[in-house]
Amino acid sequence: MLTPNENYRNLKDSYLFFRISKQVAAYRAEHPDLPVYRLGIGDVSRPLCAAAIQALHAAVDDQADAKTFRGYTPECGIPEFRSAVAGYYARRGVTVDPEEVFVSSGASDELGDILDLFDASSPALVTQPAYPAYVDASVMAGRKVNFLTAGPENDFLPMPGKDTEAELIYLCSPNNPTGAVYSHEQLQGWVDYANARGAVILFDAAYEAFVEGDLPHSIYEVKGAETCAIEICSLSKTAGFTGTRLGYTVIPKALERDGMNLNAMWVRNRTTKTNGISYILQKAGIAVFTEEGLKQIRESILAYKQNAKVLMDALDRAGIRYWGGKNAPYIWMACPKGMKSWDFFDLMLEKIQVIGTPGEGFGACGEGFFRLSSFGDPEDTRIAAERMEKLLKDM
Ligand code: PLP
Question: 264 — alpha (psi -120 to 50), left (phi > 0) or beta?
């Protein structure tokens, strides 16, 4: 009899969003007349920008005409898309060769697929609280996962210590769920650590577009990252492609381990396991990285940032401690009066009909914290912030 992948037995139930939707559905069934205000979503609410929409229409028309029709696209990406991404890096002074850019259908897919490059015996290190895919994809691949705890004591930005054992390191900055962003110096610390040990960093930059000021958008802004880091990026939060699906991954040609070149290995992987990403979507991606496209996506990001500000102002007035929000779409607040995160979830739903995400769902050390998202509708966010402020002040 065939043996299934036994590693799936080691997966913990992923109950966070399931439990939230079940509890919200039950509440709505009991209170059909009460509106609910959603600050729990990690999905965007604003439509694709005009430049992307025009490019999508034009690409569909291309497919209707024998003269412009495109069949399979190159597995690693249309050269114009790879160059557009390299140009996006160049704007921040980071040199990336277009052949180091690989198109993808999103960061989630890549976070799992990329593990093909590494032997399953190399343990992963995940900073926790964490986006659940890091742990689950590693467990499915039979990889041991070690954790490094993020908390108020390190501003949710843990650094490796003398005793930290790591071979494959997941870093997410700006972080989901905490909204924390590593500085250049901190990333330099991780890069030096990884180079010294021969480890590889998987740097999840899904939220880089929210970074402001003198903080790094990319790990390649740090010296030596090209010999130890892979960067996984997505147009989901940058440009509203959550339902459209497009991303990119950067694997420097200088990244080698044990005489094997990871860029060349990924070319081999992609040319074997994919037949490219839709021509139509890549055309939309190219449009995002034009001057016009970048200006338009900036407007959406600023609108989400405005939501974050409304929420942060309310928390400030209520005297609640929080992290994130400034360079990330998420605000990570301490639950009031030392409450547990699911108890605070229940309280918010029952008393003010505002839905957030209990921190415990991102790992045990998320207990006592709560994630608020700025991706919602501005008016809903305003009402939710008002209600939260009152609730928190009255406690
Ligand atoms: N990485 C992080 C940290 C995320 O929060 C998300 C989505 O919420 C993803 C990756 C997945 O992005 P994508 O839509 O590109 O699969």
Answer: alpha
Is residue 15 over pLDDT 80?
Answer: no
108 CA: nearest ligand 1 atom:
16
Residue nearest to ligand 1 atom 1, measured at CA: 206
Q: Comparing 5-14, 54-63, 71-80, which segment has the lowest mean pLDDT?
A: 5-14
Rounded to whole angstroms, the Cα distance separating 273 from 117 reads 13
pLDDT at residue 191 in the model: 98
| b/e code 84-103 from CB counts within 10 Å (16+ = b) | bbbebbeeeebebebbbbbb
Give yes or no for a cis peptide into 123 (omega within 30° of 0).
no
Structure-token pair, residue 300 = 């959406």
Among protein residues, the one with the nearest Cα to ligand 1's atom 3 is 176
How much of the chain, in percent, has pLDDT values that exceed 70? 100
- What spatial distance separates the first Cα and last Cα of the chain, rounded to whole Å? 60
352: left (phi over 0), alpha (psi -120 to 50) or beta: alpha
Q: In the structure, which protein residues have their CB atom closer than 6 angstroms to any atom of ligand 1?
A: 42, 106-108, 131, 172, 176, 204, 206, 234, 236, 242, 247
Residue 160's pLDDT is 96
Best residue among 14, 16, 43, 131 to mutate for probing ligand 1's pocket (most ligand atoms within 8 Å of CB) is 131
